[in-house]
Predict the 3D structure of the following.
Amino acid sequence: MTTTASRRVPVRAARGAAAALVGALGLVLGACSSPAPAPEPTPSTSTVVVQPTIEASKSAAPTPSLAPTWPLTGVAGDVVNRPAIAVKIENTNQARPQSGLEAADVVWETIIEFDVSRLVAVFQSQSPQEVGPIRSVRPMDIPIAQPYQGMLAFSGGQGGILDLAYGSGLQILSHDAGNAGFHRTSDRPAPHNVYGSLETFWSQADAGRVAPPQQFVFARTAAQASAATGGAPATNLDLRLSGASHPSWAWDAGSGTWLRSEDGKPATSAAGPQLSAVNVVAVVAPHPRSGFGAQNGASIPTYTLVGNGQATLATGGKTLSVAWSKAANDAPLVLTLPDGSPATLAPGNTWVELVPAETGTLTVS
């Protein structure tokens, strides 16, 4: 009988083998699995977030600086704080050529008795050496000069008209009253030879007589003026102010001005050049009798300037129809466009032609 012998493994050895097998399996499993993610940090309550620092500007934006301009011309320059002086200037054949008109800021042309033209020349930005011939005051000079709030110079006048002048609030300078600054020349017969010195007139200015308020509204440049931007081209302004007064103006592109003629002949100044204007304003206004009489029973006329009416503004070789208004004798003449906005003039001198509504005409060509 065959007997199969059994093989026994020692207990200690078996336990060691089992442990080795378990260790090997652990290594294999560890190699096949990913490591556990690290825990995210918990925000600390002491963390401070610092924003970028932006410093505000320490100063305001600069204000645009505009050069000062003369109040009656709109021309930039070193403005002198002195009053305007309105001077009554003769405009007959015996008086031409006159002195100083080329330096006036504004010249007003009016018709007095016997259809004669006389001028009110207003000076402030320039001071010619001599002005004249200077003649007597008329009623329309008061509403013309009052808005300038300065001085009115003339050679004399009728009692009632003088009362109007002295009651106007203007500082009156009269040759007949003995004010300084007037003199007679020997090259012309009286009464066409009274002349004046503006510097002497200004030296007598009352305390408080300062630069005049602006009268017209001026554009910054000639190209921006109302007539230049919205007017119709024109080369000639032909005026018939009365049977004896026929001034005209011709556009001169070279100088950028209107050149003045009297009865078809160039109107010159005593200094030589032809009289010119950057702006010409033809104002149509009533021309009634004033109630004052002249020689041989003639009536002295005046103008009704408090009110409103139509005007023609000529600037830059163009003309434009505008409206005029004046609220009171001491208020400026206001020019407006059809939409009610101010009509602007080009910087420079201005001639105002007062066209009698009843008989005067203006022809533009």
In short: The domain at 85-364 is CATH 3.50.90.10 (YerB-like fold). The CA atoms of residues 33 and 63 lie 75 Å apart. The chain has one domain: 85-364.
